[in-house]
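Whether sequence alone determines local backbone shape is best considered at the level of individual chains. The sequence in question and its structure tokens are set out directly beneath this paragraph.

***
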Amino acid sequence: MLRHLRAFLAFLVAIFCILLMAGCESAVVATPAPTTITIAGSTAMRRVLVDMAAAYNRQHPDVLFVIRGGGSTVGEELVRGREVDLGASTLFPPEQQAGGSASPPPPADDPLVRVPIGLDGLAVVVHPSNSIDGLSLVQLRDIFAGRLLDWHALGSDNGEIQLVSREDGSGSRILFETRVMGDERVALTAVVMPSSQDVVDYVAKNPQAIGYVSRAEVAEWIAEDDAAPVSAAAAANNAAGLPRVKVIPVEGKLPTRASVRSQEYALTEPLYLISYGQPTGKIRQFIDFVLSPAGQAIVNRYDAPIR
């Protein structure tokens, strides 16, 4: 009898161990289902978004990011069509847009929710060999309208002016045409580029060129009172330590973080992440990270943080 009791107890212990091991195994195997967040829109925001996504992914390895360009207008349209999770946009909300904006008005029941994450400045860039030391908004308009054709009229010996503009739908182009051009059009002789990086590449190789770019593309070449470290990618682009382009003052101001934050710089624009309706779940968690001190420190590498 005692032998049967011992055998029965041994059997119960064995069953318990098997169940315990099964429970432990399921706890080890169970991992969070991966989530992908898709972001599309402003190429001016690409650098900060790439760094932001990398930092967030280190804390949340189950969240992956797909970041696409296309311009601010495209980003907003894709969010409205629910084709992406978030739009990246530098467009002012419709109620704040000045006259002449090329962006289409939204429907009356527009479901888009805009979350400001920072402020950008549209930097005017020329070749480093250009001796010009600043331009007014009127001079910029005369240059891009085609009324000023040679740098000599502005005190430089760089020859015939070559205009470099951005493509339709670009938030940077919309801001430039609204704040600088007004009712006038950019001359048809302008070379059109799909991103700020392409504008920098073109101007760096052409001494006659002038263009406008997000300050994020040239942040490492703007003297700052509150200098912030740039990303490894930006440092690699500036490996030689020499500026590839020259950022010139507009109305006596450079697009420093301080002048952008105070909006004293004439060509200041917002940085928005846009969701369809109020963000929830993983999207809300990512936006909360962007607005946290850690996220705003990443914004500060390139632009002026909102907090």
In short: The two ends are 77 Å apart (CA to CA).
